[in-house]
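B., you asked whether I could sanity-check this one before it goes into the benchmark set. Here's the sequence:
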Amino acid sequence: EGGIISWYFHPCEFVHRVFWDAVNFSNGRNPPKSEWKLPPARTPGEVQAAFANFEAYIIWLQSFPEVRFITTGDAAKEYRDQALGRCFSRSDLRKIAAGVTREVSFQRHGNLALAAADVFGLLNEVVLRGGRVPVRLNLTPFGPADAPPPLRTGTSASWDQVCRTAADVSEFLSRHGRIPSSVWLGSTPVPPESYLNAIARVARLLLSGRRPPGRIVFRPARLAAADFVAED
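And here's what the prediction gave me:
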């Protein structure tokens, strides 16, 4: 069934014995520019042998009939985002809203992969539209610029306030292209994970033709997708 195999070679590997930054900055050193040193070079024979070995490697890879060399532009077309630009139906959005838990993460729906930010934008639009569909995914926002403040205990806001907040969030996403670090319910900030968890519950009601309660509860939630990123 195939897939992408990617090899990466740095030009320094063919002509230098070590990387230039290792020569100057290893073990936490940070010398002034006047003290920077050139890395030790390979001999002309070693350089020629390295390039010859690389060329032979490429020729060997090309000898397999099932192997196809592509550019990054080809890869962008082959593996394009199937969700971006798509209009999501009521049924689609109900499944997406049902997939949101207090452990916020990405979702898979058939051939579609939705980042937590995609889900955030789609369901905020559901709330903003009062449940009217379809909803088009126009962008995948970046994550917050700063770590959101934790929500230690639950809080609540009126349905009217949530509607006004959804409008503010929609404008923020369009203008900045990222998830806000805090979502403001009037003068009360909540983390975007808690906001998403709450509006997912509201979206399920709206998409079922039901009215939301007079007050919406916001509970602590966690970005479980961060488990896939190293702590450092």
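One thing to flag: Residues 44-62 form the longest helix (19 residues). Otherwise nothing jumped out at me.
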